[in-house]
Specification:
5-stranded antiparallel beta sheet; 107 residues; 12% helix
């Protein structure tokens, strides 16, 4: 019987109200409405949106305010060891960011 891969819990900020690094404008009211749609989305090791880059899963998301009063979505989830020592790299702080496999739409 095979042993399950090692998993670690991760948490952080998924998105903050305002203009993102890739020039997407995230509005507070839209984040408040959409935050639950991130639950059960994959956590990715890159922005490839491929099965191979899926390393974990978002389990909980909350809409909160940061110290500047901006809406942010905070998440909790897990990352699974994929053979690349990714969980060790996260534990050691070598990797400190993830990507959540979510799409945005203009309405």
């Amino acid at each position: 019987m095979s042993q399950l891969p090692r998993t670690i819990n991760v948490n952080g900020i998924a998105v903050v109200e305002g203009l993102s690094r890739n020039n997407h404008l995230f509005l507070a009211e839209e984040l408040d409405k959409a935050h639950q749609s991130l639950v059960n989305k994959p956590i990715l090791m890159d922005h490839e949106m491929s099965v191979a880059s899926a390393i974990g899963k978002v389990q909980r998301v909350a809409s909160t305010k940061n110290v500047d009063g901006k809406t942010q979505l905070v998440f909790e989830g897990f990352v699974m060891e994929d053979g690349s020592k990714i969980t060790d790299k996260i534990d050691l702080g070598i990797i400190n960011e993830v990507s959540i496999g979510a799409y945005t739409e203009q309405l």
